[in-house]
Amino acid sequence: MTTERAVNIVMIEDDEGHARLIEKNIRRAGISNTVHHFLDGTSALHFLYEDPNGPVHNGPSLILLDLNLPDMSGTDILARIKAENSPLKRAPVVVLTTTDDKVEIQRCYDLGCNVYITKPVNYESFADAIKQLGLFLSVIQVPDPEAS
Amino acid sequence: MNSIRQWGLVAERSFARIVVTLVGLGFLAVLVAGIGALLVMLRSEEHTRWVNHTYMVERHVSGIRLSLEEMRSARRGMLLGRAGGAAAYDAARRHLDAEIASAERLTQDNIVQQANVRELRGEANVLDTQYREALRGDETAHLDELARQQTAIRLIALANRMLAEERGLMKDRAEAQQATLRMFYAILGVAGVLLLFVGGASILIIVRYTRDLSHTRDELRALNTNLEGAVRVRTEDLQRANDEIQRFAYIVSHDLRAPLVNVMGFTSELEAALRPLSQLLEQVEATNPALVSADARLAVKEDLPEALGFIRASTQKMDRLINAILRLSREGRRNIAPDDVPLTPLAEGIVDGIRHLVDERGAQITVQPDMPTIFTDRLALEQVVSNLVENALKYLQPSRPGQIAILAEEAAGRIRIRIQDNGRGIDPRDHERIFDLFRRSGVQDQQGEGIGLAHVRTLAYRLGGTIGVTSQLGEGATFTIDLPARYEGDKERLA
After folding, report:
1. Looking at residue B129, what is its pLDDT?
2. Residues in B touching A26 (Cβ below 8 Å)
3. Which residue of B has its CA nearest to A21?
4. What's the CATH code, domain A8-138?
5. How far is B251 from chain A (nearest CA, A)?
6. Which residues of chain B have a CB within 8 Å of the CB of A101?
7. For residues B119 and B21, is the Cβ–Cβ distance under 8 A?
8. How far from chain centre, in Å, is Cα A111?
9. How many CB pairs under 8 A join A and B?
10. What's the pLDDT tens digit per position in B250-289?
11. Alpha-carbon distance B365 to B390, whole Å?
């Protein structure tokens, strides 16, 4: 992450255990960026678009998105982020979910998701995957959000 | 449905009975009319005979009168001395006798007429005697003229009486004839009315029956149409229910994975945390053993690793089961791509694929060389057959060399594929159970989760078929897959 401003990581994940495991393993990969964790879609969207510390008003961000949320489908959030006139349409979105349904994967890429990762059930694989994701995150470029 | 058939049967029976009765009545009416006509004809023939008879009698009576007249004129001729008078008289006399004899013969059946004839003959003899006496020229003849005239008058009267008698008889007979005719007309009339009634009733009943029939036919047709609709609706319902179950299985298994990830994840974290703890314990033990209690030692060295091991093993098993459910539900949702699949090459391919296993087990697999071709999903069928063959191979009877046969036959649009083995067999009590998910049968000496046959059954259903097993414990098993020869499609699956 070589941009001037630190990149915020926004994690939308309804399972606290998963969130904790993900954060731990990202940290193990050497990522020290702030991680904002949200348990539901509504508060996540509020943070993304409205919050003064959120990505729209405050610098670049990377979004980790789970598809199974209690209040809305993750694909709806994805569709809003990647919509034509969204200020966040260039923000990288990593879909990180348990679903490995082919149709669902296709749909997410159609909507504009940048990376789709299925959470491995086996913990070792899961930890490896997250660590590798962390390494990956450490090298990708994240654009600034469009001026709103 | 049932009530309509019942009603139809009853109506048909009563209809047949009524029609037969009516036709019988009609025949009876015609028969009565015919017999009546015959009787009347016979009677009128007899009547004609009697009329003729009366005419004959009348003719003879007239003949008698004529003869008397001739006798009288012949006698007058003789009196006047005309030549041939005597011969003419004799001829007239003979003529009179002949006529009387004829009349007597004709009226043999009539006592009154016989008496009249006898009297007539007597009077005729008297008159004859009187005439002949007069002709002999007796002087008394002049005196007897009156008696002669009276005799002649009596004779004429007698003849007239006979005539009247015959006329009377004829009148009676004519009346009888009239009565017969009237009776005939009455019978004819009754028969006619009866026929008219029969005809009318028949037409009425047939019309009503036909109307009922067409009504029933319409009803049946409507029912039939409804039935098709009902079947379609039911099929859609079933389809929907099935899809719902598939979706349910998918969601459940899918959502079960999320907590499982946590359990496994934090178990690993625990294991990782245990490592420095264990190292610390060893260090302390090395430097200052007095600080380490037996309990702490036991907990770190034995209890914690054991507990973690069980948690790990159980979560791994649960993971496999959930994956099995997921796979099943995905199979149920997979799109079927039917194609022409010749069974013999398919079976041979499967056998080739597991050749090493077959050789390892020392078994022998025979594939029927002329199996039919089926139009269905190749992948699904391949999975079904290979699963069953692998099962057969897995559960052989160790005491005898394995013999497995793959057979197929086609009948009435269905193809039955049989996988036959001489393995250890399946207890008949378990024949249903083994197709359930996670259920197994017999000695548990083989690896497996109890998923294979459940998977096979799901696939068989998916292809529009069924699967069954016949087996006795220790005597091998035969699995039979019954599939439609042509897969007819999902009928637009409801997503």
Report:
1. 81
2. none
3. B265
4. 3.40.50.2300
5. 10
6. 250
7. no
8. 14
9. 52
10. 777 777 777 888 888 888 889 889 999 999 988 988 898 8
11. 11
Q: Which pLDDT score, from 0 to 100, does residue A3 have?
A: 43
Asked whether the beta carbons of residue B265 and residue A98 sit closer than 8 angstroms, the reply is: no
DSSP string, B338-392: EEEEEHHHHHHHHHHHTHHHHHHHT-EEEE-TTPPEEEEEHHHHHHHHHHHHHHH
**Domain extent listing, chain A:** 8-138
Which residue on chain A is closest to B333 by alpha carbon? A101
Residues of B in Cβ contact (< 8 Å) with A25: none
Measured from the Cβ of residue A127, the count of other Cβ atoms closer than 10 Å reads: 21
Q: Does A21 touch chain B (CB under 8 A)?
A: yes
B172 has pLDDT over 70: yes
**Tokens, residue B54:** 């009366």
Q: For residue B265, give the nearest of A68, A101, A123 by CB distance.
A: A123
pLDDT digits (tens, 9 = 90+) for B323-339: 888 777 777 777 788 88
Cβ separation A127–B268 shorter than 8 A: yes
| Contact flag A126-B265 (C-beta cutoff 8 Å) | yes
Helix runs in B82-139, H state only = 85-106, 111-135
Q: Are B374 and B341 in contact (CB under 8 A)?
A: yes
Q: B114, B108 in Cβ contact below 8 A?
A: yes
CATH superfamily of B336-484: Histidine kinase-like ATPase, C-terminal domain (3.30.565.10)
Assess whether pLDDT exceeds 50 at residue A41. yes
Does the predicted interface ipTM exceed a cut of 0.90?
Answer: no
Query: Token digits for B491?
Result: 């009928």
Question: Phi/psi zone of residue B381: left (φ > 0), alpha (ψ -120 to 50 degrees), beta?
Answer: alpha
